[in-house]
Write a structure and sequence with these properties.
Distance between the termini: 11 Å
Shape: elongated
Radius of gyration: 23 Å
Number of strands: 9
Largest sheet: 8 strands, antiparallel, barrel
Strand order of the largest sheet: 1-3-4-5-6-7-8-9
Order of helices and strands: HEEEEEEEEEH
Helix content: 10-25%
Length: 182
């Protein structure tokens, strides 16, 4: 019985060491934005309750998404979206080496003081991840010029990876249990 327990302890120690020393596939996401008329370029087309644009310029702030270059920080991206089609994309305007695309899940528009505040909830498609989530917020002037943009992209781990880890742990538990009680 002592010999079996020492093997179980060794296996548990191995699993913990493996989890601790394995390089983690973490990505903290990305932020894009502009504020003030001098920093924001682009306009929004309004058709009834639908909003769209193909050429809003935003700058990449923090940028830490696995699979993308780290040189994206500070570069300009072109933001294009269409609420009627439910599509949105961010493309590196300088060299085109990074593109994020997504689906608009929902959006709201509120008009106050001659300006419109447009907020979108987005599911981003991020390579290596199941999806990313985020929000896009705009302040649009009465002549449809963009005054402010704030875009956040947060990756979420792929569910299949978590399921694989869980089934592996269950399998190890079953093997240990079988050895202890046989």
């Amino acid at each position: 019985m002592v010999r079996v327990l020492s093997k179980v302890g060794f296996a548990a120690l191995f699993v913990l060491a493996f989890a601790f020393f394995t390089q983690q596939a973490k990505a903290s996401g990305a932020d894009f934005g502009c504020s003030g008329a001098t920093n924001c370029n682009g306009s929004v087309t309004v058709s009834g309750m639908n909003y769209s644009s193909t050429s809003i310029t935003v700058a990449a702030g923090s940028f830490n998404i696995a699979g993308f270059d780290t040189d994206e920080v500070g570069e300009n991206f072109t933001l294009a979206f269409d609420t009627s089609a439910g599509t949105i994309s961010l493309t590196d305007a300088s060299d085109g080496d990074a593109t994020l695309s997504g689906t608009i899940v929902s959006f709201t528009a509120h008009t106050f003081g001659g300006q419109t505040q447009l907020t979108m909830d987005v599911n981003w498609n991020i390579p290596g991840y199941h999806a990313g989530i985020g929000t896009v917020g705009f302040i649009i002037s009465s002549n449809n010029a963009v005054n402010s943009v704030d875009v956040s992209v947060l990756p979420t781990p792929e569910p299949a990876s978590l399921m694989l880890l869980g089934t592996g742990l269950l399998g190890m538990g079953a093997a240990v249990r079988r050895r202890l009680f046989s």
